[in-house]
Amino acid sequence: MKKIKYIAAKEVRHILRDPRSLSIAILMPIIMTLLYGYAINLDIKNIRLAVLDFDHTRESRDLVGRFYHSGYFIRSQSEPDLADPEYVLKAGDASAVLIIPPGLSKAMTTGEDYQIGLSVDGADANTAAATTSYANVIMIQFLKDHLPPGFEPPGVTLSARVLYNPDLKSSHFFVPGLIAVILMMISALLTSITISREKETGTMEQLLTSPIKPRQIIIGKVIPYIFLALLDGVLVLTFGVINFGVPFIGSEAVLFLFGVIYVIAALSLGILISTVANTQQQAMMAAQILTVLPSVMLSGFIFEIKNMPIVLQWISHLVPARYFLLIIRGIMLKGSGIDVLWPQAAALVVITVILLGVATRRFRLKIG
Amino acid sequence: MKKEFHQVIRDRNMLWLIFLAPMIQLLVLGYAINTDVKNIYTAVYDYDRSVLSREYVRSLSAGNYFIVQSSDLPLLDADRGFTENRFNVSLVIPPDFSDRLEQGLGVAAGFIVDGSNANSAAIAMGYAGLITNKFNRDYTGLTMPITMRPRILYNPEQESVNFMVPGIVAVLLLMITSMLTSMAIVREREVGTLEQLMVTPISTPALIVGKTMPFAILGYIEMSVALAVGIIWFGIPFVGSWPLLYFLSFIFLFTTLGVGMFVSTVTKTQQQAMFLAWFFMIFAILTSGFFTPISNMPQSVQYLTYLNPLRYFMVIVRGIMMKGAGLNVLYPQVLALIALGLAIFTFSALRFSKRVK
């Protein structure tokens, strides 16, 4: 026990003496939260819409006005060419072109067949789908409002209700995930540097010849970083909630508990990386590739896991961030408790045990 | 220049990193980056159980947007289904569904969506709305004389891969050229061979060209391989002109090599160089319109993106590959890239030569 404390204290002194590590540990998470949180906005709005109105009646102007006032569409950067209206899509000046042929106002009174054209840039499939949906909604509301009063349209209407995020702000989905990713990145980065730094400076041999067991060395080294990572977590969480208005419905205590488990898992991954890498440089690179990429791509952070090919879905089971993402989103947005989330926590514990086990074994191999 | 090539090839580790890592990334990203909203698990509470209600449910499950299942959870406990992520949507059909429809009246069905993923939720509601409209037209005989027909241009299969992979190719190019250039130059400084070079009678411009050219060539090779993988493996389209793409990439390379050179002049160790280049890169990727449209970002960030060469190259790559755009359409981006390229490259080259002296 005392030996572990000794190693931990030594590590703390190392950290405090290295201003670069400290600035990575404290400044980087804040900068990243702000940067990613503001830059990445998955809401589909401000879709640039070009309009060609050949009808020029009160009704057609009303329709065009509804599009631009919906909050989803804004004016395109240039007027569409009458001869080739879809050219603006090619040039990227607009994402959709609305073409109102002459006769809208007439068709509304005579009831004859009439069609409005909407050409959509399909390059970004999501934006295209959203564009057609929004346009459809606007269209239907327009028609309903122009029907004779008291006339209730037959057919099915959907009474929609959105849970957990009624204003549909994408930051609610994104920021908790960001916290998970940043925690993973910082933790792995810091610990991967620590052991390889000792290897580089040669103090590793000193440690190994001392009567301290490898297991104690590792645990001692990890402990200060647990506190550091948790401090980071609180920082990022506070920023996320205050700056982006992300709700926090569930229990802070449960999040803290699971957060500790997650941090330990992330730190273990960092330790494992540092036993493999020979130089600090290699450690940093490996840390980036093995933690950032899977945590961002395969954890369900932005992209749905269930849409990925089976192989990638299997691999995502090995990514600690996958489980913590479910945990943090569940607690913050839905108020889920331990009863719902314990499988994720259990998975994290299993992963930690495996990682630390392999790291310890590698450590022993290097000595023996 | 030959020397640089030799050095690069001799460093086996680096070689793996240069070719293997990006390829793996391309494959993984190409498969993982899937922003399509599909396979939404939907729990159905059908209290009508009529032919018509079953028809309605069936129409929702056509196409692979919604995966419909009856829920074993009673309606009052439905939120367990949401918190445990068993389903993300629940549909509630009232008992008078078919009666009202048969009488020619309107009826409301409940549609409850998990809003955590706002994007998917909005799109799911959109799909449901469109499907419901079609159902209304088909089964209740109601036709609105005024209809809107959307037409989707480019990317007819609506695969998000087609949108993402060109972006990934652009990102790979950026990564290779800026990171490796900066690291290589810094490594020489670390090792000390840079001073040796400065003593030799090579002129500074020749030195600069010699240092950056190999990485430009590597970048081209990388890009070609990535494009080949994208087209053959992922089946993405390439509608436009190949020579135009390569020519415009050349201009883009001016900016990235310039950044690489700049980084090498402000860092002392390879580690720092890698870190700084990485930082630039992440920033460039995020604000380039790769993941998220620039028009979504706050105004101040949007202004910043005008300085980001990747922003323009992203439009170019996607425009050429997906829309067959030519110079007549892309000239604003090309002009911007030329301006940025000249500025960055000259600035960095000047700094570099100052260091040399």
Your description of this structure?
- The complex is a heterodimer of chains A (368) and B (357).
- Chain A has 14 helices and five strands.
- With 368 residues, chain A is an alpha/beta fold.
- Chain A folds into two domains: 2-41 and 169-367, no CATH class; 47-145, abc type-2 transporter like fold, CATH 3.40.1710.10.
- By secondary structure, chain B is an alpha/beta fold.
- Chain B has two domains: 2-33 and 159-356, no CATH class; 40-139, abc type-2 transporter like fold.
- Chain B contains 14 helices and five strands.
- Chain B has a four-stranded mixed β-sheet.
- In chain B, helix 3 (51-61) links the parallel strand 1 (40-46) and strand 2.
- The radius of gyration of chain B is 27 Å and the shape is elongated.
- The relative contact order of chain B is 0.11.
- Strand 4 of chain A pairs parallel with strand 5 of chain B.
Task: Compile the SSE list and pairings.
The complex is a heterodimer of chains A (368) and B (357).
Chain A: H1 2-17, H2 19-39, E1 47-53, H3 58-69, E2 73-75, H4 87-91, E3 96-100, H5 104-110, E4 114-121, H6 125-145, E5 155-163, H7 170-201, H8 203-209, H9 214-244, H10 252-276, H11 280-297, H12 310-316, H13 320-334, H14 338-367
Helix pairs in contact in A: 1-9, 2-7, 2-9, 3-6, 7-9, 7-10, 7-11, 7-13, 9-10, 10-11, 10-13, 10-14, 13-14
Chain B: H1 2-10, H2 12-32, E1 40-46, H3 51-61, E2 66-70, H4 78-83, E3 89-93, H5 97-102, E4 106-114, H6 118-139, E5 146-153, H7 160-191, H8 193-199, H9 204-233, H10 242-266, H11 270-286, H12 299-305, H13 309-323, H14 327-356
Parallel strand pairs in B: 1-2, 1-3
Antiparallel strand pairs in B: 3-4
